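Bumping my old thread because nobody answered last time. Still need a sequence for this structure:
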């Protein structure tokens, strides 16, 4: 039966949740829609709202064929409500309610907790669109510009996904939260977004690639945990969002990889053996590898903060309640209650960084962060392969988890990227070697010259291996002037 998977495009809001028969929720969403479009016009990609963009739109949630590609003006993108199909007989798979049937309605005792989880996730989605809204003007190619806009419209859809849950399951306060999601603004003084990394600037394309590689990957880990939820509509929503999220990380990882590749090619062609000779490297119109490392240091550290405190009773409560599980919860071989287990947590004890066993329940943030680090390390390894293949001697690395943290065990510790604890003064003296400096930012900003001719790429980035939707190299992914 394909009816379950197919998306109904006859309503103003495409969906596979039977909105046409759910008048109350349909009305609430239709009431929210104009405010969303205003937000998109104000805070979405600046200068390209009338351009035709070669975007994919979900036409089915079937993993084999959900995407349809076509030219769309972004404000006319069919944002919709798409949930993965309901699994017959699904259970709560962890916590105090393990083994009970999964909830199709919000359990009263967990209402506030669940709403908070949904609002925090929802708040990150529009935030990243706001952070990235100026980047279209400096895109290194039409291919990259299109990928930026694809990520942006999908983050918009993720906002819709969370707003649907709020409006369908949380009545009046859900509607209020939905409106607040359109009111807060990334970086705003009086109404900032809820999480730190989502109030930072994304000033250039290298930041964008780092953000989609590292910060969207935090999103992936959070969605993976929420996809385990005993609240079935949340689980189904997140499972479909994950299919979109994979593309965001592809954009980030390959974006950095192509930057690294171009740098190495230019160095080899110019006969530069020393990657740290940044003046000579920069004169080639590419980003030197030490600066790429500094960008990694910054974005990885900011993203680690998104996991919250390593030891957290909130995380334990979410788990006990059956609302937020572990990464790949159902594949883990244990009792899925964790009442007697421990987990090693990195802490600052007696002036040194050590692993200390903590109750597994309160260490869930640390555990998810560890899974995240493992995932990030794979991207870094692939970048190192590119460097190696080019014959350049240099290695990129993730900094130590204690480096440059604002939240958790290491917030008051000054550590180097290799995990050596140093004094504040020593750290300050090294700062510009560890994190992007103002001069690095100026250099990168000067490199960000837009390239809008089909098939051409800016000096600092290599073309992709493959086109989108198997299109040829000179495909016009964005028709800027229509
Ligand atoms: Fe998202
Ligand atoms: Fe994303």
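Sorry it took so long. Here it is:
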């Amino acid at each position: 039966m394909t009816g379950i998977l197919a998306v109904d495009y006859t309503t103003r809001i495409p969906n596979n949740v039977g909105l046409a028969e759910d008048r109350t929720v349909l009305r609430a969403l239709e009431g929210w829609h104009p405010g969303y479009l205003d937000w998109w016009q104000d805070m979405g990609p600046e200068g390209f709202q009338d351009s035709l963009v070669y975007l994919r739109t979900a036409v089915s949630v079937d993993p084999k064929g959900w995407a349809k590609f076509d030219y769309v003006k972004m404000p006319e993108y069919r944002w919709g409500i798409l949930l993965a199909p309901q699994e017959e007989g699904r259970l709560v798979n962890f916590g105090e309610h393990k083994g009970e049937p999964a909830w199709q309605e919000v359990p009263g005792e967990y209402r506030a907790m669940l709403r908070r989880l949904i609002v925090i996730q929802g708040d990150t989605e529009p935030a990243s669109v706001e952070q990235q809204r100026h980047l279209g003007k400096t895109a290194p190619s039409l291919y990259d510009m299109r990928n930026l806009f694809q990520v942006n419209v999908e983050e918009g859809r993720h906002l819709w996904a969370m707003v649907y849950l709020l409006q369908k399951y949380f009545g009046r306060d859900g509607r209020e939260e939905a409106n607040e999601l359109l009111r807060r603004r990334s970086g705003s003084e009086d109404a900032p977004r809820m999480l730190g990394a989502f109030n930072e600037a994304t000033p250039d394309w290298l930041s964008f690639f780092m953000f989609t590689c590292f910060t969207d990957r935090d999103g992936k880990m959070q969605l993976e945990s929420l996809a385990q939820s005993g609240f079935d509509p949340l689980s189904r929503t997140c499972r479909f969002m994950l299919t979109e999220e994979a593309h965001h990380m592809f954009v980030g990882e390959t974006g950095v990889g192509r930057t690294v590749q171009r740098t190495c090619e230019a160095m080899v062609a110019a006969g530069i053996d020393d990657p740290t000779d940044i003046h000579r490297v920069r004169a080639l119109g590419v980003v030197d590898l030490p600066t790429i490392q500094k960008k990694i240091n910054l974005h990885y550290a900011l993203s680690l903060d998104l996991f919250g405190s390593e030891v957290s009773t909130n995380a334990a409560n979410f788990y006990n309640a059956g609302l937020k599980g572990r990464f790949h919860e159902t594949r883990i071989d244990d009792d899925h209650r964790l009442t007697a287990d421990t987990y090693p947590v990195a802490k600052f004890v007696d002036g040194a960084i050590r692993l200390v066993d903590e109750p597994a329940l309160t260490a869930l943030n640390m555990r998810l962060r560890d899974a995240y680090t493992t995932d990030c390390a794979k991207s870094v390894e692939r970048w190192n392969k590119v460097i190696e293949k080019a014959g350049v001697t240099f290695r990129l690395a993730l900094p130590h988890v204690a480096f440059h943290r604002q939240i958790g065990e290491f917030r008051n510790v000054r550590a180097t990227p290799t995990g050596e604890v140093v004094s504040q003064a020593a750290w300050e003296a090294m700062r510009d070697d560890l994190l992007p400096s103002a001069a690095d930012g100026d250099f990168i900003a000067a490199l960000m010259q837009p390239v809008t001719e089909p098939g051409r790429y800016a000096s600092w980035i290599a073309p992709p291996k493959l086109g989108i939707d198997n299109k040829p190299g000179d495909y016009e992914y964005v028709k800027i002037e229509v």
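The first strand starts at residue 52 and ends at 58. Let me know if any region looks off to you.
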